[in-house]
Amino acid sequence: MNKFWPTFNLTYMQKVKSKSFIIMTAIFMILIFALSNIDKIIDFFDNDSKVVAIQTDNDMIYKVLEKQYKQNDDIEKVEKVSLEKGKKGVKDEKYKRLIQVNVNGGKVDGTIYEKGNVSESEKMTLQSTLSQMQSSLTAQKLNLSEKDLKTLNTPSDVKTEEIKTNDEKQSSDIDPKVQALNSAVVYIIIFLSFFITINYANQIGSEIATEKTTRVIEMIVTSVKPSIHVSAKILAIIAVAFTQIFFIILAIVISIFAFDLKGLFESAGVEYGPETTRIIIYGAVYLILGVVSYISLAAILGALTSRIEDLAQSMMPVTFISLAAFYIAIFSISNPDTMLVKVTSFIPMLSPMVMLLRTTSESTPEWHLLLGIVISIVTCIILLVFAAKTYRGSVLTYEKGVIKNLKNALNITK
Description:
By secondary structure, this protein is α/β, with parallel strands linked by helices. The chain has two domains: 4-34 and 175-413, no CATH class; 51-149, D-Maltodextrin-Binding Protein, domain 2, CATH 3.40.190. The protein is 68% helix and 6% strand. It has helices at residues 4-16, 19-36, 38-45, 59-70, 83-91, 120-141, 146-153, 176-213, 216-223, 226-258, 261-268, 274-303, 311-314, 316-331, 339-344, 351-357, 366-395, 402-413; strands at 51-55, 77-80, 97-104, 107-114. A four-stranded mixed sheet has the order 2-1-3-4, sandwiched between helices. A hairpin with a 2-residue loop joins β3 (97-104) and β4 (107-114). The longest helix is centred in the middle third of the chain and has 38 residues, at 176-213. It is elongated, with a radius of gyration of 30 Å.
């Protein structure tokens, strides 16, 4: 073991001191801080007026609209104006928009004047409000009481009840806002996992392939046991990946305690809940296992590469497997209970990303998630042991093609 640490320290320090590591880590941290303050950044650059003008001859309609817009955080003031003044104000950017409401024979019509395109949500909101007013005016004309109007407008009640099998968790009725944040957290962890695994898998593959193709490894193995050398290399790259993850987590923790995220969550329509903590813990575990398994596989493939020009081709299995896991997870994020997700979540190498997606589903049994962790741990151990066992044979064979080199490596190992 006395020769393990020099190799480990040399590889680790070279990587963490490299410009690419420092720049990428800094970019990640800056992005996290920027996203934590995105609402403040938008407000800083938003020079648009926050005043809404309303033109109507009906005082009741004006009071209802005034109350509605004052509850909107994006609106600071509501003014009652003439049509001409309102249009001029919108053109001069004094008003964010002008709402014109006319009542003709019990029918309530509205027009929105805005510089630029009017959003669909804004049209739907005004339409809903005016429809309620029209119902009230119609009720008055027909001499209906408030109770009759309320009964008339009461929608039918449709209840749902989900039938679970014995091994599935009973629904806990998670708040949609919490569920939205949970999905966002899973999306971010999957993206981070994909980026880190691809980045560091290519680094370890390139590191080992370069040593082999330049014949430097032939001198190294005369003084250092091959299994110790490759173990030090793999663990050093894993340590570099964990260092970057540490700084990313540090940036997230700083953002949570230093910045007011409550307002950001409210504006985004999401909410933090107990399930979110559980998903973050599972996410951290699966992220670590995914990084270890992909780096180990990349080290094996790097050692089987005869020429540096063939490295990209040799690394194709890592690229394809990680892409498959990433796309299955991303495209199924809105429906994590599909058969494809359930089956692939138990397949080694795919499990770290796909099983993480299933943490957002209430129907996923806890033992499925734990089994996914066990499968990933076993996969990591097998790959690390295989890399250490076959490394000596792999780096000393120079046949064309990964399969031929693998056969020769296994024969030498025997």
